[in-house]
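Please, structure for the following, as tokens.
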Amino acid sequence: MFRILRYLILIFIISTGYYLFISEYLNITEKNIYKEEIVRKEIVEDKKKIIQEKKEETSPNIKKSIDKVQFVEKKIEILQGDTFVSILENLNFKQKKIYEVISKIEDSFDLKKIKTGEIISVFENNYGEIKKIEFFKNTETIISVNLDKEINLNIIKLTKASFIESKEYTITESLFSDGIKNGVSSDILVKIISLFSFDLDFQRDIRVNTVVSISYEFDEIVETGRLEYNDIKYASIIIDGKQLEYFKFITDDGYVDYFNRDGKNVKKSILKTPLDGARISSNFGMRKHPISGFNKMHKGVDFAAPTGTPIYAGGNGIVEYVGRNGGYGKYIRIRHNNGYKTAYAHLSNYNKGISKGVRVNQGEVIGYVGSTGNSTGPHLHYEIIYQNKHINPLKLKLPSGKILEGKELEKFKEEYKIIYADHLSMLYE
């Protein structure tokens, strides 16, 4: 009996010891697993922190580099015979893409108005992909076509600043060359010559020590620095102590014109020759027609000149007719205030903005020499019509230009005094 009790006590002790051992082992193992889990979590958290820190460090740089992506600009000059389609074809655009680009632009701009010599800018990314095309709609507006995922067209209005500038110089060689030396734009110099051409023979009258004094308007496109020269406000030429001077004035009937201090117009009412550098190829009168071969009255004067030579309005007036007119080809007729009309035939094209009912100023470009209609070569056929009768332009006794009177004269006098005071102020400030 005692022996059996001893065995049971021994079994109890062994079982208790085993139980305590197993419990402690499992407890230690659980703690180790827990510690490993904590360490693992800490490692993961540290990795997340490191990754996040790297993101925070690199993200701004990535964004910055994206913002600073530079496009390479390539400028393409439009040559004779080029079209917008041919330019896109040369840039390896697919026909579908060309159609989409053209359609988008044509909603806002007539691409036929882009002229030879103008520039189209093409912008490529670092992979040589064209992402943008830009060109000037006019001096103040850029059309920008973005070619990323979608084709988007933006009209960019540029900032225009207007200025008045005064210059005075003494001629030592010629009005033109000395003007250039003194910083006067060639555009303004051409206008001075045109303005004084009724009073002066520039080959004979202009001599050394002639003083030229001018004030003129111009605009600057701020973003591009491009300059656009506008009207002369005041012009004076002093030869041997005698002064010829004229002031800009907008008349009551809306024309920009030039008058001396007495209100007399600088201009004759009609130009005998409405283009520069031309030679007479056929006079007014009876002649054998070069195409039909019959004798026929030639009701104007023909001036031979290269195709594209600018044609000027013969006088202030309103465009009465513009369009094709039988054998005359492309044709313009202007009605003037004093019973006169002038007509211009065989043009290659009309200047922008010329249409029926438009008011034009003498000397303004209305079209370009061509050979349309019944013509054997490029020339201008020029007619002067007075009370529905054709007059020989070369024998016309030119009527005087407008003379200001009454309230219009008083208004002019007030304005010319301001113009002259401003001119002197700018010269001597």
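Confidence is low (pLDDT under 50) at residues 31-68. Residues 279-395 form a domain with the Glucose Permease (Domain IIA) fold (CATH 2.70.70.10).
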